DNA sequence: ATGGGCCTGCTG
DNA sequence: CAGCAGGCCCAT
């Protein structure tokens, strides 16, 4: 559930608080959060200790920091973060190196009232602040990845200084907030596939950043049912769908993203307000805002889909 | 292309 | 106490 707008809220929060800072130490409370790190904890510490964070960039749901050594030289790799479905990156300005939570044992065993109960990793910075990665379900992660040139030569992502991208994010398509995204080309690729259009919206190698919530919202806005084959849609209709997806994510970003509870928050731990603006997701049993028909929920490819049976007609 | 696994906490 | 939430990875 952090999807594109929520990750962008986090990126914007991290930018002023972390860029220019040097990592003094890396505290790993649960090694599973760095399971994608080649070489494990030693390699991560080696890459980060004494290293300066020089930019925070994002493509789709992938975030990364650019890194420079003590001489100001680019290290050639990035620190990549992904929030999975329950990850949070929080910045603490007061960083007592050992917090009470440390001695309380495993991060998952603190009291429910402890906001840092699910702290998995902390980067201690040279200005006395710290970046905490909290993640209840551990689908997220933090790891380093070598930089490589993007294939189209444009700036790699929002916040990126150039066309270099972490290798582990190179297979991710540009997202709908990226000015270098070619909407017509994305639409043509969607129309070239017979898979259900919702699966195509969720395919991060076609267009990135869309998750289950915004897919359902975009399909509702464009009046397309989730199981319509991509190839059945006109170019015009797919463009309408992509523009609807972009618009709903832009509106969500304006109000700080979608949050159902304290799990999905900005770097200060605050929730966004877009949940109250959702028209389809989680609204099964409620009337459609357009036609009043009761919205339904269907299980589609193992995930729930919310739709209006009248506005979003079935493909035959 | 498709489905299972990773995870934990909450719900029925 | 089983089921559900779901992004991404991986095996089939």
Give a brief description:
This protein has helices spanning 4-18, 40-48, 100-103, 183-191, 197-202, 212-221, 235-254; strands at residues 23-28, 52-59, 62-68, 74-82, 87-92, 119-125, 130-135, 141-149, 164-166, 296-300, 303-307.
Radius of gyration: 20 Å
Q: For the record, what is the CATH homologous superfamily label of the largest domain?
A: MutM-like, N-terminal
Average predicted local confidence, pLDDT? 87
Q: Low-confidence runs (pLDDT<50, min 5 residues)?
A: 98-110
Q: And the CATH topology of the largest domain?
A: N-terminal domain of MutM-like DNA repair proteins
* The CATH top-level class label of the largest domain: Alpha Beta
* Number of helices in the DSSP assignment: 7
First CA to last CA: what distance?
31 Å
The number of E-state strands comes to 11
Q: How can the largest sheet be summarized?
A: 5 strands, antiparallel
Describe this structure in words.
DNA binds at residues 118, 137, 193. This is Formamidopyrimidine-DNA glycosylase. The protein has 316 residues and is α+β, with helices and mostly antiparallel strands. It folds into two domains: 4-169, N-terminal domain of MutM-like DNA repair proteins, CATH 3.20.190; 183-307, Orthogonal Bundle (Helicase, Ruva Protein, domain 3), CATH 1.10.8.50. It is built from seven helices and eleven strands. The chain has helices at residues 4-18, 40-48, 100-103, 183-191, 197-202, 212-221, 235-254; strands at 23-28, 52-59, 62-68, 74-82, 87-92, 119-125, 130-135, 141-149, 164-166, 296-300, 303-307. Strands 2-3-4-8-9 form a five-stranded antiparallel sheet. It has a four-stranded antiparallel sheet with strand order 1-6-7-5, with helices on one face. The longest helix has 20 residues, at 235-254. It is globular and about 60 Å long. Residues 98-110 have low confidence and may be disordered. The chain binds a DNA duplex (12 and 12 nucleotides) through residues 1-3, 32, 35-36, 61, 82-86, 108, 118, 135-140, 195, 199, 202, 204, 211-212, 301-304.
């Amino acid at each position: 559930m952090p999807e594109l707008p929520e990750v962008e809220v986090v990126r914007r929060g991290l930018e002023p608080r972390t860029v220019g800072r040097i990592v003094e130490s890396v505290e790993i409370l649960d090694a599973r959060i760095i399971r994608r790190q080649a070489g494990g904890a030693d390699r991560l510490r080696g890459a980060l200790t004494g290293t300066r964070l020089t930019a925070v960039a994002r493509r789709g749901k992938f975030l990364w920091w650019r890194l420079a050594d003590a001489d100001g030289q680019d290290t050639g790799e990035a620190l990549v973060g992904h929030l999975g479905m329950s990850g949070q990156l929080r910045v603490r300005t007061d960083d007592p190196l050992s917090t009470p939570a440390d001695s309380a044992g495993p991060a998952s065993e603190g009291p429910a009232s402890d906001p840092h109960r699910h702290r998995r990793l902390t980067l201690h910075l040279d200005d006395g602040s710290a970046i905490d990665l909290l993640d209840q379900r551990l689908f997220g992660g933090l790891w380093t990845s070598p930089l490589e040139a993007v294939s189209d030569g444009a700036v790699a992502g929002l916040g990126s200084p150039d066309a270099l991208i972490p290798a582990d994010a190179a297979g991710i398509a540009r997202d709908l907030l990226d000015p270098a995204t070619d909407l017509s080309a994305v639409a043509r690729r969607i129309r070239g596939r017979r898979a259900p259009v919702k699966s195509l919206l969720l395919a991060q190698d076609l267009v990135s950043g869309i998750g289950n919530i915004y897919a359902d919202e975009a399909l509702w806005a464009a009046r397309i049912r989730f199981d319509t084959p991509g190839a059945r849609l006109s170019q015009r209709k797919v463009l309408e769908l992509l523009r609807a997806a972009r618009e709903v994510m832009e509106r969500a970003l304006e109000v700080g993203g979608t949050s159902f509870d304290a799990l999905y928050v900005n770097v200060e731990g605050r929730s966004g307000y877009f949940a109250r603006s959702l028209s389809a997701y989680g609204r099964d049993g409620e009337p459609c805002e357009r036609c009043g028909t009761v919205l339904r929920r269907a299980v589609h490819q193992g995930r729930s889909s919310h739709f209006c049976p009248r506005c979003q007609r079935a493909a035959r």
